[in-house]
């Protein structure tokens, strides 16, 4: 395309952004207009993408990290012939796929954006997959705003990308100098960004983002740079092309005051179509089919930590299917992903202590068809909460494994204890939350996760625990195990993980006193096994939940939720971690928090004595 | 102190770290040994701290961001005479204040550490307070590990500190080249760190961290550098001084294999005492006492967004007391902290789009006696979840305000909707969770938050809502309001925020059909008003919760928790956001998610028709 045509294309994108936001009555046209020339040249000359085959493995990946520039993205789709003008103007309407911020409801959008600073971490995952797994020469293009460069997650990704020499990754920064509520820290000081990125090992190019010749040259240079990722740092003007809003504060996130005049000022609507370059033929290498799955088997009575069982099961799963990858937050010796790393080093990714990048990379890899297991301490997954939340919006299938759950870790103290993780994961849309209490159960659940949609979470424990289930036992997601049951049960104890063993010990103590209790191992916290819980309620009338987690948001709440269909409720009593733990042995911790066998037994006795239960 | 004495002091710290970990049977001696010389010189020559007066406003602040080096910190305390040898050896024992990672159970520890990458963000808050609020020349010293430099939160703080010219802040990086599971990305490449920090505008000094002369000179240079924060990048050896562990992998986080031999190799125990330099006299400027509090008053029937009421109330609160500060995540025009910024610019802190830094700064400021209100979209507070979790461990009193709650925001779509925030905040130890539905209620709660301990959260809404309470009405934390009540009520609807208004509308619809419902406005989600809920349960037998939040972890779970004392349960039914929203108007969103008046009325009708309720 000639330069004047490229400039015309930029104007078309601007007009369409104005039109879409005007039709919607909301949206971010000015943030779209600043990046229009960058996007025009990218689409016309550099992107390789088959819009008829969004699943083509050779397609480049385009991520609008500045997701609020969605009108620009949708305007590009119209240029490419992927959507028509009528759909463009459905922007932000109920039932339109053109949401305020892009989501994978559109087949050309891999991941949802709109929480700033997430595009590059996800892009790193895609670029890593391209380099180290797919071996397909697709490029990953990330369009970012200048404001979001303040997000730490961006710098986690910048470090990761440089360290991995991801020369298939290009970051395009739309430096329009204005954030939502005013100027950014660095304004139009392109060199401020270049200095920082350069120090991390990136190749940087500073340009005028409205000069299509410069843009074209920069994108070409990015494509031919070897051994380093490239950042194109483009000076632009927010609202470019319309004097009433151009480079003016207070114009963020709203339609233009006078859209008709603006469209006229921009030269009116245009209908340029671009035949986007098609990608070369490419073949997917990974496969869910491999050798037969031979999960590790543990003997009943053996003492094994569930984190160890996780590591061994993941290694086995990796042998059975080549689409499984493991990601570590520099604690692989603790989470036991090191077992996987030893057997499958090419599918193991060290993300160092950067949990947002850890999860972002996982999201990027699942978008390329892989089945990622990302793991760190349960406590530190809270670091990536916003990424996990956005993964749910992305309809991403990722598996997260948090080790060192609860006070049972012992002496390291509260900073290392996952005590809020169940609450975090339960509240996610479409999530699955699993919490095994023994090694064979863990192994089965690790394998089951590979087939689940959405965000799946496995909570593992630091300390050894006795194996209580045989290796052939099955543990369907959504199920539970009734470990003790009789027609004399006066209370049902619902437990998970470490407290299952405490509950069993409590049942032994109580049995000596003639008090029978039912025990439910709620290994699937979400979905929870409502039927079994309801049966237990009918039989015993009272459910006592006990969990190594805060009283809010975990097993106690999950059990209560099983009775929210309007049916008569059983009596519900809950034990959880209500204190602020310090350092102590695991046994002392469980006791101090009131969730050990003695505490459970005491609670049951109280319920029986107070005749709360029959 | 002479150089040979400084070196001896370093050895003492090493020996004590080895002894403490040996006594505990766990801990991180090798990570302490690498930083021993740095700590020795800092304590002996540069720190100004009165250990008898930890509240002295002139005290320097010392933050061990690498909190696992706690044995070193406690060894310092012994040198300073703050603890005795017996207490040192109580490390990690039940009831010892010397926890595995430092917490404010010790009077000399301002904030808990142990989740890496948090010390610098918190230190920036303290240094900002010193510069812009306290006007006291204390220095903030942050000791960090090299591994944690991978955390994005560190780079948020690095950017913030340079931008604010915090020359009272020194970062000491203990570059021992070994992380938990192996080498770091940059090993001993000090220049890699210097290049990055320098690019962000920091003064950097590279030294041999075991050369006490070099350490002394570097600390002095840091103290005399003007206009820039300084980073001392120190090459050290993990486990320094004991050949069996020095610079060896696999020696992280465990006592030395042969402590007795190690102590001998280090020259045996020493009992050097240092009289730490006292700070100059200093006076606290801020005060809780100011003018009378004149909260904004809104007229019943007026249409006001609770976010607007928050902004106005916060500005008023800032006029009444000079210890109130406001922090913004570059969305002050949306959260309405801009009202505060206009009236109190000197106490307004723009943290840009860096939510971890936003919360870290707030934690640092509350440690200096301020009452911070940090605000961004509710959805984006998830970005800082780990910081908020650690704030609870720090016993920090911070106020967090999340705007744009729920699907009611409308067209911007799910990335911008706070739908998991109540779950996140409810599960925190000692937290308070408030969710007002009108402007006067909001104003009262904003004022109440200033007096609360721990992490307090206020959830505000984007859209205008009718004012339903008079300006003189009181809203105690832990209370609720019964908006409709009669002896014919068949169901109790428990709502919060926007759904209160939907519930009122539903009651009107149902009233026309002869169905009376009780309405409880649960503005205090945690603690919840168990008494009122229990009374409503006794009266109506069935509680229907309705919330603009995921069904898990929010109002539904809070209400269920009010019945976990063993009493008979009412029937509980919940309405919450079970779909994945797209873009639509606020009204359409509430309807699509089944939490609008029509949905509530339909649910009540069903309950009545099914004779679930009497």
TrEMBL record, chains A, B:
Q: Where is the Transketolase-like pyrimidine-binding domain?
A: 304-467
Is DNA repair among this UniProt entry's keywords? no
Key words, A-Z: Calcium, Magnesium, Metal-binding, Thiamine pyrophosphate, Transferase
User: Which of the seven top EC classes does this enzyme belong to?
Assistant: transferase
Q: Which Pfam families match?
A: Transket_pyr, Transketolase_C, Transketolase_N
Cofactors named for this entry: Mn(2+); Mg(2+); thiamine diphosphate; Ca(2+)
- Please state what the protein is called: Transketolase
